[in-house]
Amino acid sequence: MTTPPVCPACLSDLDPPNVWSDRWRCTRHGDVEPFHEAHASREQVLRSLGRTSRVPVWLPSPMPVHWFVSGVGWAGDERTGAHAAALSVSGPSPVGGPAEMVLVAEAPRIGLGSRLAGLPLADPDRLEERPEAKVEAAGHPTALWPLAAPPDRAAFVGEALGVWLWCVLWPADAALILLEHLVIEDMRDDPRLVDHLLFGATGSHLSAP
Ligand SMILES: [Zn+2]
């Protein structure tokens, strides 16, 4: 079961495809890839994304100690496949208290990562000159640039396997987790990665404005 699709960029309800157009339409953003968040059967949805997604489905591997999957989302429909895939994970922040991190792989102009990062444009506008963090994505050291996000979060963007890789963390100081050599793998390469995941309470940011 999933929620009715909404706009990935603003979460508004969408006009479904009709006789005039085969695209979903947001009154503010025009034709969009419809955004869904899985509510029941998150594990099944994740496995299915691993088979059908057109973009990487990033999972921390290994997951930080005591962290668990707290949300699965994607933008796209059955006909075209996912053009954005998002995984939310939650657990203890390195500085204490609960933290949440959302990893998004996304084709250009979709607006999901940008909404999570709290930015006005669909794609990163201008990157700082120097990357600030690094993750290992599918075996490659991948630079992440800090973004000017609202103060309640830290947001980074880079490029991996030909599409944007967004990493958004709440609260902002949870970004320290990126200093702990975060390794992420594309579930499409190894569906068995899901076997090792714990699924827990739903996070609060994947479908939050
Ligand atoms: Zn919209």
Bound molecules: zinc ion
Globally, the shape reads globular
Radius of gyration: 16 Å
**Whole-number tally of structural domains:** 1
Strand content: 35-45%
Quote the average pLDDT: 93
Report the order of strands and helices: EEEHEEEEHEEEEE
Class based on secondary structure composition and strand pairing:
mainly beta
Sheet having the most strands: 10 strands, mixed
Residues in helix, %: under 10%
Order of strands, widest sheet: 3-5-6-7-11-10-9-8-12-4
Distance between the termini: 21 Å
For the secondary structure, the number of strands is 12
The DSSP helix count reads 2
Low-pLDDT sequence parts:
none
Protein name: Phosphotransacetylase
Pfam family, one: DUF6758
Organism: Parafrankia colletiae
What does this structure look like?
This protein has 209 residues and is mainly β. The protein has one domain (41-196). Helices cover 8% and strands 35% of the residues. The strands form two sheets. The chain has a ten-stranded mixed beta sheet. The protein is globular, with a radius of gyration of 16 Å. The mean pLDDT is 93. Zinc ion binds at residues 7, 9-10, 12, 26, 28-29. Residues 7, 9-10, 12, 26, 28-29 line the site of zinc ion (ZN).
Brief sketch in words of this structure:
The chain is mainly β and 209 residues long. It is built from two helices and twelve strands, in the order E-E-E-H-E-E-E-E-H-E-E-E-E-E.
